[in-house]
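Milestone M4 deliverable, item 7.
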Amino acid sequence: MNLSEHDIRYLQTQIARNDDQLAYKSLFKNLQPWLYQFAYSFIKSHELAEEIVSDVFIRIWEKRKQLEQIDNLKLYLYVSTKNFSLNYLQKLLKNKTFELDQLSVELKSLYADPEQVLITREMANRVRLAVNQLPPRCKMIFKLVKEDGLKYKEVAELLDISIKTVEAQVTLAVKKLGSTIRFDLHRTTPTAPGSKK
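Output delivered:
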């Protein structure tokens, strides 16, 4: 996620005070991929996940005059995406309850560009395998903290769980990834261009 809290606050102000469509587009462009992945983890449908995130942003534009009343817009967007997704599922499943362990989570940035994160393709594959072996709830919390950049408190509020649970799940994920990956620094350190082997 490329936008800092300061950037989001600036865009939020521009949208609320000036009806700034460029600021709105920038906010959408930068946050949509993350919210889409989050919605997809609930819905498991690419089209519906896109539709849900679009609906969330349409609601933001419609209520833009009240936007400055929101303290943490990023968290607000995640909560809105979760609520829209759960509302859809409730309509679909009626009386069936939904558990975090039913989530289908995909992490992208941890292994999207191995050169960018200075790890080899082999190491990226190890990370991918280790992440995919995490329990769904643990993977979702790990993704929200490490990939989406949410704070522990924000994840706790978003998922209606305690901060201690978030801390425990992240610790569990890091331990499992560490034991699964078993870094071999001599094999994974990239060689600088033009250097001798």
